[in-house]
Design goal:
Elements (H helix, E strand, L loop, with lengths): L2 H7 L13 H12 L11 E6 L1 H20 L1 H4 L8 H9 L11 E7 L7 H18 L3 E4 L11 H6 L7 E9 L13 H4 L6
Antiparallel strand pairs: 1-2, 2-4, 3-4
Helix pairs in contact: 2-6
The structure holds flavin mononucleotide.
Flavin mononucleotide binds next to strand 3.
Length: about 200
């Protein structure tokens, strides 16, 4: 698949087949993440791949509960986080759904030891994007799940249960599986609308 075609046809998949993703395919997706750029080429990116319905459902329940609890604090959070105020904040709260992880067969937590690099957060997100494009080219579906950031709030025994090492800060979460439906592309802004050209 040509690069621009992959970029334009990738979609966030919100319905998955139950069948697991073959280990070799998952490994190729993870490898694609490792070919993303990283500050000073320090390569701080690490993965935790969570599979199995029971574990994923447990994690989902904890993330949903954490997200709902956090959203109850909106009036306070809104004081220093403008995106939590008004209609935007309400929309975010409404976006929390019980099946937050869409019954995907695998969730890749992308993170790092924050002491490993000053740019670790950017590095992990760039890796996540590479993974989503590579997965799409392999015929797999993905969805970035922002709420996985709340995995950082899990207690020690939960972290152990979900295989998250003590020095691993979660930054991104990417669901991976075989897509069970295909959505049309949500519209994008035009280049002209978002670009300031200077000096040309
Ligand atoms: C930072 C970030 C957080 C996101 N979090 C979620 C999420 O928690 N749940 C979800 O269903 N989609 C999530 N998405 C996916 C977006 O909703 C999706 O990318 C957007 O609607 C555009 O659709 P497309 O990816 O199919 O082009 C997230 C995307 C980003 C970049």
């Amino acid at each position: 698949m040509e690069a621009f075609e992959a970029i334009k046809t990738r979609r966030s998949v919100k319905k998955y087949e139950a069948r697991p993703v073959e280990r070799e395919k998952l490994e190729r997706v993870l490898e694609a993440g490792l070919w993303a750029p990283s500050g000073q080429n320090l390569q701080p990116v690490r993965y935790v791949v969570i599979e199995g319905r029971e574990l994923l459902d447990d994690l989902q329940a904890k993330l949903v509960a954490g997200a709902r609890k956090l959203m109850k604090l909106r009036p306070v959070l809104g004081l220093f986080a403008p995106q939590m105020r008004g209609e935007k904040g309400k929309r975010l709260a409404r976006s929390i759904r019980d099946n937050m992880l869409y019954e995907a067969p695998a969730l890749v937590l992308v993170g790092a030891d924050p002491s490993a690099s000053a740019t670790w957060e950017k590095d992990t997100t760039l890796a996540a994007q590479n993974m989503m494009l590579a997965a799409h080219a392999e015929g797999l579906g993905t969805c970035y799940i922002g709420w996985t950031l709340l995995a950082n709030r899990l207690g020690r025994s939960d972290r152990e249960r979900f295989g998250i090492p003590p020095d691993f800060a979660v930054h991104d979460g990417v669901l991976v599986g075989y897509p069970a439906d295909r959505r049309g592309a949500p519209p994008r802004r035009a280049v002209d609308e978002v670009t300031t050209w200077v000096g040309a």
